[in-house]
Each structure stands twice: as C-alpha cells, then as structure tokens.
Design brief:
The chain is mainly alpha-helical and 599 residues long. The chain has one domain: Hydantoin permease. The protein is 62% helix and 1% strand. It has a two-stranded antiparallel sheet. α5 crosses α11, α5 packs parallel to α16 and α6 crosses α7. It is globular, with a radius of gyration of 26 Å. The protein starts with 39 loop residues before the first helix and ends in a 19-residue tail after the last helix. The relative contact order is 0.17. One of its GO terms (molecular function) is L-amino acid transmembrane transporter activity. It is a multi-pass membrane protein. InterPro entries: AA_transpt_TM.
Amino acid sequence: MAATGEIAGIAADGDPPRYPGREGPIPPSNRLLHDPNVSFYEYTYYAKLTREEEEETHKTSPPTVGFMQVLFPTKSSGGVTPIDTHGNNGSNGEDKGISEKKVGELQQRIEISEAEWTNASRAVRTASGSACFYLITTDILGPFGIGFSMGTLGWGPGIGLFTLFGVLAGYSGWLLWTVFLGVDSYQFPAKNYGDLAFRTWGRPLRHIVNFLQGLQLLISVGVIVISNGQALSQVSKFKLCYAVCCLIWAILGFAVGQVRTLQKFGILANVAVFINLLIMFISMGVFAHSPPNFAISVLGSAGSVVDSTTITPDNSTGVLVYPPIIHYNGMPSKDLAVGIFGLMQGVYAYAGAQLFIEFMAELKRPRDFLKAMWGAQFFIYSCYMIYGCYTYFWQGQYSYQISYQGVSPYSWQTLGNMLAVTSGLIAAALYGNIGIKVIYNNLLMEWFHAPALITKRGKTLWAAIVPIYWTIAFILAASIPDFFGLTGVTAAVCFVQFTYTFPPLIALGYRIQTHALQEGEGFDPATGVVTLHDRGLRRVIRGFFADKWYLNVLHILYAMGALCVSGLGAYSSCHFLIEAFKNPQVNAFSCTSPLNLNP
C-alpha cells in the first residue's frame, strides 16, 4: 500500500499491512497518527460514510436556528451524538471514551475500540455554523488599515484589488471545504491544515505547512501583544513604562488562552466582532467632524509612504500649516516598492484561511462551513469597502495605518484604543489556541505520545503550555527592533501561501487522485486492501485529464501567481525594513514607546 498522498507512486494491488500478533486488517482506531500506510482511498471511503451519516442526522433532527441564535450563538449542548459499543447511534452504551490512553502510542492504540475512537472524534465537534461565522470574521476582519491602503493605491486600484482578492479568498475557502469533506471522517479526523496537505501530497508538504502555520500564528500573537502595548502607552500619554504596557497583555493572554474549544471561542468572537463594528462607527463619526491627527502622520500615514512632501507642514509664518487633503484616482506613486506595498495590503486583508480547517474540524456539520464562510466574506468585504473608502475620503494622504489612532481628539483616540485592545486580545487568544493545537497534535502527540486534549492529563498539559507559548511570542516580538517591518516579510512568506497558494495546490492533488480511480479500483474495508490497476506518472496524467482538466491548469496558474505575489511582497517588505533599520529602533524591553515623538 502506498504512502498517503505520494501521487507519483500510488501503489498497485497488495496485501494490507498488519501488526505482529494481530490477525486481519488494521482498523482505523489502531492506526498510528499520520500513518503513511493509510491510502488516500481509505480516507475518502470513510469520509463518504461520515458525510452520509451527517446528512441523515440532519434530515431526522434538523437544527432550529432563529435570527437571535445567529446574532448570539449559544453554548453547544455537546458534540455529535456518540455511538454505543455495538456501533448504533445513541448514548446507551457503556463506552467511556479513550480515557487516559495514549493515542499516539502503538500498544495503547491497539487497546482502543472502534466505538471509543470514533466517539473521541465526535466529542470535539461542538461548534455551530453561526459560531463559525464569528470565528471567521474575528480572524479576518481588520478594516482599520484599509484607508491607509487606499492612500497607497488610489481609488481605482484600491477598490479593484480588494474586490479581486476578496473573491479569490472565497474561492480558496471553497476549495479547502471541498477537499475537507472528501478526506475527513470520524475514523480519520482532519484536524488542521497540515492534515489536508498530508492526505493529498504526503509528508513533505505537511511539514512545510505545519512549520509556516506555527511560525505565522506565533508571530501573530506577538504582533497583537506589541500593538496592544503601544495602544496602552498612548492612552497613558507615555507615562507608563512601554515594557510594562506590553507585558500586561502577555499576562492576560495566560488566562484567556485557557479556553480550549472553538465553540467557546465563538462567544468571545461574537463580542470581538461587535467591538470592531463599534470602533468603526465611532471613528467614522470623528473623521467627519475633526481634522486628521497631523502630528503622527510621519509615523505611518499613506503620505509618508507615497510622498513625504504631502504631509510636511509649512512653518514659514511660525505656525504649522499642513498641506490639504489629497486623493488619487490611480496609483499615486511610480515607485514599484510602494505599489507592491499597497498590493500586499489587499492580499493580507483576507489572509485568514490558515484557520479554516481548524474551524471545520470542530463543526457539528462541516457542510455548514460554506454558508458561514461566504456570509463572513461578504460581510468582511462590505466593511472593507465602506470603512476604507470613508476613511480615505475624509483623511486622504493622512490616513493612518491604524485608523482609530489617526483621529485628533485624545478622548476619542483613547476610546478607540481601549476597545481595540479588547478585540485584539480575543483575536490573539484565537491565534494562540490554534497555534498550540498545531504544536500539540503534530509534535507532542505524534513524537512524545502526549495524551488527547479531551483527557484530564491532556487538559492539564494544555494549561501548562499556554503561558509558555505566550511568553515565547512576547519575547520574540519584543526583542526585534521594527518588529512590524519584519512581520511584513513573514506575512509575504506565510499568509499568502495559506490563502492563495496552498488551497489550489491541495485541490489539484485531491482532484488528480479522485479522478484517476477506475472501475474495479478502490478500498475494501473487509480486507483492508486498496486495489489499483496502475501507478506512477501514467496514473497522474489520467487523473489530471480525466475530468475538467482546465480546472487543474487554472489551479496551477493560480498557485504560481500566488507565489509571484509572495515574492514581490517579500521584496517590498525587505525594502521598507532596510529603510526602517537606518534609524534607531525601540523594542518592547524599553520604557520608551515608539509612538512617543518627544521621549
């Protein structure tokens, strides 16, 4: 039997692998985590059974979700209905789950029954579609830099690019959803992005995906800790030590990070979405009735990137007179780096697909993800367009990178900062939650045989890991001067891949293997044998051209285009990073805030 996802070397007929001293084929409950001997067609066989069961359950007992349940999703009453030890639906059995058994250890796995194994998978599927909507929105929605982006792109390119990347992000989400439904099951649950990469392309892509995702989420947590620290230092009028301002949020993360399930995060995400909307409405009102915050425009406004003369005041009369607000219909600068910088803002704005698999993995009914995703994407796009255009109209080249800090009245600036740090902390906790799960599922369970997270020992280990994770994120972010410049490089290398490169690549591998299947081929659960009549390049070519080959070509071009955008983004970010390092930088181990113009 072939290693999973190795498309060019798909195995032909053969006997299923067996453990010494055990007769018959190996059931799913006794497979090793990320077992290379599990065939792609074994994954799809059990996935089909799981989808059929979900649809049958949905028909017999459809959920009743009203308008208020969508706005305010309640805590779930539990996971998917377990099965008893005889395989029947219901909760009458005496099965007590996987208890404290080490699911990553072969000898312990042999002791786990099929009912125990599938019930463990069912137990974590607690999230509702409405909760998923808020999780996606909290993950992606970041409208406070869109006005700045419009200032670097101009009206036409700005609106056009944000529309294009929004549509592409939705298409990528659809691709991930399609593959997830095809390879996820109660017997072989797909828990994270790396699992989809593993089941379609094999170990190498899985390791690349897990490394990039872990790095991205760790840095994302650190970025929010530092940005919240900057906001708090601004609120305190720089009287509170900057290092303390950042450390406070890291410590708060120790507590918020103890939330383990995404269903519970759905409640927090609900709060975060409404807080962000409130910030938008407040800042929009202030924009229309007060001038921009001219003093900080040199620190990160659109004009500081495009043309510094447009924000340089005239002091000839002894009174600072700032240039009038300017708008551009087209690209305001001929500098390639500036244009790419604005382009990347559009790419980053929708870069949240790295968490989509984790969201689907904890949904009671993964089919509901598509409605939640498209609803969230339309809502996010609407917020971007309305708020971004409004901000750019009123502030022009003075549009600041963090819009609510670009208002001039200190009182409104303070209110925006305090609301934003609350929603930011929730977002950081969400990133930390997924980041820890990536490490736990792919490192601790597989390499060190850690207990499952639903066990008592697993929960205790989680509680111990959370402060360690947040501490590392804080130290990493705090110790690097001009950290936000460095995150631009990280975003180009990581963010773009998860939203625009990996989805078409994973979909390509899934389509090739699915359409390469011939009559008489497939997985036989009675014997554990995967019957294939050929393998290698011939099989790959047949799968590529078997059905709608032009979609496969489109996915290759899509992935290649995303890689080009990633390279351009890395170039642009490095360019501005080099410029930033020419000036003395302040890190978060200092008492001086980088926002303080008069230290």
